[in-house]
Amino acid sequence: MASDPTRFVIIGNGAAGTYAAEQLRKDDAAAEIVMIDDEKYTLYNRVNFEEKTVSIEPGSGLGYDKLLIATGGRPNPLRVPGSDNAPYLFNFQYFDETKAMVARIPESKIAVVLGGSFIGYELTEAFAFRKLETHWLQRGPWFLRRSLDEPGGKVVSLLAADAGVHLHYEESIEKLERQNGQLKVQGSKGFTATADLVGVGLGLTMNIDIFKGTALQTKVGVLTNEFLETNVPDVWAAGDVAEFYDVVSQRHHRMGTWDNSLNHGRHVAKNMLGAKQPYVEVPTYASGMFNSNISVMGVTTEEEPDAESLYEVEYDARNYKRLFFLGDKLVGAILIGKMKGRKKVLELISSRTPVEERQKVFELLAMPEVPAKPAAAE
Ligand SMILES: Cc1cc2nc3c(=O)[nH]c(=O)nc-3n(C[C@H](O)[C@H](O)[C@H](O)COP(=O)(O)OP(=O)(O)OC[C@H]3O[C@@H](n4cnc5c(N)ncnc54)[C@H](O)[C@@H]3O)c2cc1C
């Protein structure tokens, strides 16, 4: 008699959960796959690891053989006087918010954004690109202050100014007031504006609340080993919420990127089916940066404040490179502007090749890329 199919339960249908489900179906046609998500409806959602069940409603219990936690994070809200239920104040996480912003833009002239990381940047670019008078407030002295140094921050400032953005560093929002269908914004250091739109990117809080009081080990996210296994048998974690042991940088960390979530999803599915392979990828984040590009690879001073670094900058051309070293290993890099050398950086990081002269890495990056195939003889 055929045995019952294995039941895989996945909590979260973002990139990690969805790509895991796709891979499970591909590799195990008979698997029973149940996905649970709370995008539209609030769920009573508890997990009982001893009984191997998740509860979707009070009193209900859905059994699992193998469980994947892919619950991601939620944006930290702006909490200042006047922010509760303020109209035209947006985080940037859910599709409904995006639709509401898009609907508001044609009737808007002035936008204020708070946030010195990628969501803040994306909102700023979106408003500036649509020709709104855009004020970008950042609590730090420059963009991505934990990973970029002052010259790198200056290159971002130049790119933002080129795009017509008004920059306000070491400034935050202290108060919001409704005023004739707009929001009066009071800054902490004297900034004021009457805005049609206010966007905020203040980081994420991981969705781990439902595991409180259980045996599952959590820190900022859900802790896993290099196989994306948690400390609880038959339970894995993937995507933004996974605080995984990274064999490349040899430390635990979390990545909030699409590529990481997608790769985690595919990888964890194979391990849930029994492969037991370590996840080996150099973490990368690539984004537009106004009319240029930024790429963050590996570990930077954000995760490893003691990493030593070198930089090269060309302000006029808006190009910048910063390399991060731990001992004789290149562990990370940030490129703004020209992306030349990105592949070599990734190779050096993943191969953990000892670097004798750090400055020479810049020369290596400037060398022509080796073509993938030799040119055919004439
Ligand atoms: C505006 C924006 C722009 C971005 N831009 C980029 C970019 O340019 N490049 C890049 O690499 N990355 C970018 N990212 C990040 C990238 O989108 C995320 O890293 C990725 O989508 C995370 O996927 P995930 O599956 O781990 O989590 P999520 O997509 O957060 O999915 C988690 C799901 O789990 C559900 N959930 C949570 N708790 C429960 C529960 N208790 N019960 C049931 N369901 C639950 C949530 O509702 C959600 O649907 C951006 C993110 C945002 C918000």
List keywords for this structure.
25 strands, 378 residues, disordered C terminus, binds flavin-adenine dinucleotide, FAD/NAD(P)-binding domain, five-stranded antiparallel sheet, 21% helix, alpha/beta, Enolase-like, domain 1, 7 helices
Broad CATH class of the largest domain = Alpha Beta
Number of strands: 25
Overall shape: it is globular
Instruction: Give the CATH architecture of the largest domain.
Output: 3-Layer(bba) Sandwich
The description of the largest β-sheet is: 5 strands, parallel
Rg estimate, integer Å:
23 Å
Strand content: 25-35%
Bound molecules: flavin-adenine dinucleotide
Structural class: alpha/beta
- Which topology of the largest domain does CATH recognise? FAD/NAD(P)-binding domain
| Strands in their spatial order, largest beta sheet | 8-15-9-10-11
**Oligomeric organization of the protein chains:** single chain
* Number of domain units: 3
Distance between the termini: 65 Å
Number of helices: 7
Spans of at least 5 consecutive residues with low confidence: 374-378
Under CATH, the homologous superfamily of the largest domain reads FAD/NAD(P)-binding domain
Helix content: 10-25%
